Amino acid sequence: MLKINNVSVKYGSFTAIRDINIEVEEGEIVVLLGANGAGKSTTFNTVSGLNRPFQGEVIFEGSRIDKMSPDRIVKAGIAQCAEGRKLFPAMSVLENLKMGGYVHRRHRDQIKKTLEHVFELFPILEEKKDDPAGSLSGGQQQMVAIGRALMAKPKLMMLDEPSIGLAPLIVEQMFEVIQQINKEGTTILLAEQNANAALKIATKGYVFESGAVVVEGTSEELFTNDEVRKAYIGA
Ligand code: ATP
Description:
This protein has 235 residues and is an alpha/beta fold. It has ten helices and ten strands. The protein is globular, with a radius of gyration of 17 Å.
């Protein structure tokens, strides 16, 4: 479904990611592991069209997307749920969610149906739909961010650190919802520092270090890899 082939990205003269190769099959949950600054967000932003690679190509469902505009990439079926949530804090929960459906604005019935589905996944958001998004708890804001990405009806959803700053119980619920979204047919690419939780739901993973992929394998392989355990699982 998604192929990142030999992709390198620079910010000015600094090479943030080098020769990245990643493959995501339809239906999978794929996790990118790595410390802060290792290059996970840069990789996501390259897939979503916010960064332009100076080398390599990004292919989605057989077509090159690395020269497409971000809105065309969303229309093609890729939605990104950014780290730090990046909501519009003064706007209501409902307005934030509707923003995610912008690319489908001519299909009101579809938007209404998708919104109902988001409220089924996150009933608390229906209760709080008229509240300013910025007044919600961290976990609820993360739900809005995921809901907003779902409003674009993506085939592939990229989630950047969905568990960051959340209490363990909320993290568990978040991962359950991600799994459910996946079961309903959305392929997931996930960046996480919480390797333990992420590898439990992922099919495979890639470990980033200083802008390069240093280890890749099935979740099972990564889970039992001594270096991965030492660095990311703490055992
Ligand atoms: P994090 O979880 O902190 O976002 P990450 O693994 O996603 O980490 P990136 O955000 O992709 O890492 O950052 C990769 C490298 O590129 C880091 O050294 C970072 O400082 C640098 N970087 C990221 N964005 C920019 C930018 N806009 N301009 C210059 N350097 C940047």
